[in-house]
Design brief:
By secondary structure, the chain is α/β, with parallel strands linked by helices. It is built from seven helices and five strands; from the N terminus they run E-H-H-E-H-H-E-H-H-E-H-E. A five-stranded parallel sheet has the order 3-2-1-4-5. Helix 3 packs antiparallel against helix 6 and helix 5 crosses helix 6. It is globular, with a radius of gyration of 14 Å.
Length: 127
Amino acid sequence: MDILLDTHAVIWFFEDDERLSQSAKESIFDLNSMIHVSIASLWEFAIKLSAGKLAFDGGIDGFIEAVYENEFTLLEIAPKHIKMITALPFVHRDPFDRIIVAQAMVEDMTIVTADNNIVKYGISHIW
């Protein structure tokens, strides 16, 4: 299964945060799963890091290194993802979440998220 981690899910995974659900952990550790992290999540993380809303050992470099160390795939933002955004209703106004939803739809991925607004798009999700 192709899985796309929402930004909070990847952060919580790296920090071994108890807020990450058991089913989310199981899907990430499932050897049959291909785990993806959107470039949008790196961008969102960098903004929150620079604003002092987050801290992470090693900063942005440590975060990127953790993505690669865990053998997650970085999902680039492509024109087809941007085009999908134009078809999305404004259930969610957060631009980072909207691109993650669009990427999951276009790439036929399951999103790991606790965000109920993302779930409202009717896409495959795990939590």
